[in-house]
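Support request, please re-run this one:
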Amino acid sequence: MLTLGPDDILLDCRAKSWQAALDAAATALTEAGLTAPEYREGLHAREAQSSTYLGNAIAIPHGTPESRRHVRHTGVRVLQFPEGVAWHDGQRVHVLVAIAAQNDEHLDILRALTHVLDRDGVAQALASAESREEVAKLLAKQAPAPRLDKQTLCLKFPAHSAKELALAGAARLYQGGCVNTAFMSAIAERAPVYLGGGYWLSSHAGPELAPALALATPADTRLEEQGHPVQAVFCLAGQADYHLPLLERIAALVESVPGETLANADSTRALSLLAGETGATATRRVRVLNPHGLHARPAKQLVQIAREQPVAINVRLEEGSPSSVSAASLTKVIGLGARRGQWLVLSAAGAGAEAALDALAGAIEGGLGEKVSPFERGFEPAAPAPADIKAYPTLAENEAHSGVAASPGLAIAPIFVMRAPRFDYPENATDSEQELGRLKDAITQGQAQLAALVRGAGGEVADILSMHEEMLDDPELYRAAEEAIREGRSAEAGWWEAIDTAAHAQEMLADRLLAERAADLRDVGRRVLSVLCHIELPEPPAHPYILVTEDIGPSDVARLDTAKVKGLLTERGGATAHSAILARALGIPAVVGAGRAVMALDNESTLILDGERGRIIPSPSEERLTRARQTLRALEEREANAWSRRFERAATRDGHPVEVAANLGNTLHAADAVERGAEGVGLLRTEFLFMAHSSAPNLATQTNEYRQALEALAGRPLVARTLDVGGDKPLPYWPVPQEDNPFLGLRGIRLALTEPGVLETQLRALLLAGAPREDGLACPLRIMLPMVKDVAEFRTVKAIFDRLMVEIPADERATDVQLGVMIEIPSSALLAPSLAAEVDFFSIGTNDLTQYTLAIDRGHPVLSAQADGLHPAVLRLIQMTVEAAHAQGKWVGVCGELASDAVAIPVLVGLGVDELSVSARQVPLVKARLREFDLNDARESARRALAQSTSDAVRDALEAN
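Re-run finished. Output below.
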């Protein structure tokens, strides 16, 4: 982006004409080494097209697109003309901002200068400035405009008081970078002020704050406080007088709009009301199609058309601030900074408003004097024609190619390349009621399809598809589509715009995990769109195959016939996407993020897919194919044998016991884990229960859920991890400030300790659930704290735990109970001796421990292959943890992916690990792997691994033996 600085400014220039001033600007650019002398013709040619006068004595000359070949470096030169220059459009110019831009960087300068244009006295100040610094200061961008947009809205929040709503609004401002923790504290300390009509205000001002306004409305519109209704709470951040327009907006709203109306509004309607668009206001929604947005030329055309209308027209960005500006003001329109693809909302009132809006909207759709092309919609592109397929890069045959390992296993089969269909439909429709009826029918059919899939699925598949059902029930999503349809869109266009807008907002979140969940939303959207467009996916072959596709939605994975689909290969996607999670749950080997070239593979050609290593081999040779088939047969025989012996006690070949437990994401899966041979649950992720409710589940709800798991385990131990949510796994009713790196922020026990009441309720529920059964059978309970960095955090929780053990009668609570911690932060491993003296056990979360130790995001599409838990640094931390625990007579488990890695299992046992907790599907295979070696063999494997310097060297050394 171009910027202005003192070194770019030339003072006290003179010119007898505007042509001479342009020549001086061209010379300045050339002497600075920014352009060739020929760029001068481009400046004059551009000025001949239309004036570059901006306002307030400023012009911004720049070349034509054809003259860009004469630009050597991007840059600017500012020329001050104290006596002024008569410009060819009748204006008088005191400052030229001459721009040499190889692309369209001049638009950044233009937008940055618009704030200057309405300030009184700027022209005179620029003419009389005596230093370059003074000119630069006059042109410098001032304080940011007051912020109020969709990101600062917190609607239908499940609050119980006006203060809770104020804090929710403050959290939105904090997430947007507008306020600091001092602001949060100030809002927490003071009660909101009642404004009347159901409106409340909470505010705080400070020089370090950005002026901004958040709006929070309650989920329960019957909420009252001090005898007054609580319909909407504003949270205002003030700075100097920059927030005054926001106060004026609040005053206008309180005066003219009943609080109940705002309380029931969705985000689009709320912003419309805040913009002053009432029932008497006519509005039009129109998309900017200009390649470079509303820069000077199209903006000038828009302003001229607006001025010709009999009524005043306002315009605002639909997705930005609700502040409308006059469409008759060039500087205001340019200041919107509207980009291609953004939606504008035009508004007007009075006689002739409808016709005026039609005229202006038509001009905008026509390009405002520029050649424009339709905006591409957000659904999948058409399947490429055969000629287009040749444009894809090709993969060499009989060679290994890498992707991201997403689900372990080996697959050998012909491939079926499935390309996304094209959804072709009209943008607009005349009968909105008919379109709404079509949409409702399609949603109903989509819900029926999902319900059928849920009934035929189980475990994590059913959980995620149930979430999709909830998405289709989202009233906000339907209302957004309904509004678009009532404004003339077709059912298909209105629905997809609602889906695409919501998914785009999800993708903009800093957290990768949440951004990837946008795929779930689009998957739901495509399901309804396919019903509306009567489109069915291509029929796969009748024989077994490996599915190759650009990406795949979770419901698509759930619909796969696992008897036929032997493997999954995708062009895009990450190891943490729901589609990858489901592939693992279904036992389908998968490699994702393998690149564009996989879409050029030939249907029916043979592929070897190794989901363990993230490798594929297209069109393998007969020799390689024979070896792979031998490996696959050996794997299948091993799996069958492992299943037949799944209930045997887990131990090494010479009888050394190592408990094999299951990792669960839901209490309902406990019985299935037992059926697969699990000797307990080594990790119950309790956050599933909190994520399934709109508010924190109460004591009874939690107790019943945990008791179900304990009863299904029938005396086997349950290791329950306390609530592990935070920056990367937020709860809608527990707002957390946005963090640049949520993996290093408020999560796990750190977040739980900010709400000790929630933590105490969970601990109490676990203890009550663990009470001995009526038949006297004990329920071994192990409570595990996540993300503990040192003993101080453990002691804080231990104090609550000890108090509960005293408060709850012994016959009403668990008696066989332990309190331990997860080792997933390097500091906790390094401080294991001090922790081991006080905790009852350790469970090592190798996934997080690896990424924190190696500073590699384990979901990174490029680096994830290097995030290997067998790295010597990680193994040394595991060794330190085990040694510290055993010195105190405490046990150690491993509950990360490393626990099911066939190469790593002997190393972990050799290091002294007492328990391996893996996915339920992996339990029989892990038990089988333990039976293949002696304890002394394992210790030798550990010694050999610790002697290496890289993870590759570790694997080479272990596989060579």
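The first strand starts at residue 9 and ends at 10. The two ends are 57 Å apart (CA to CA).
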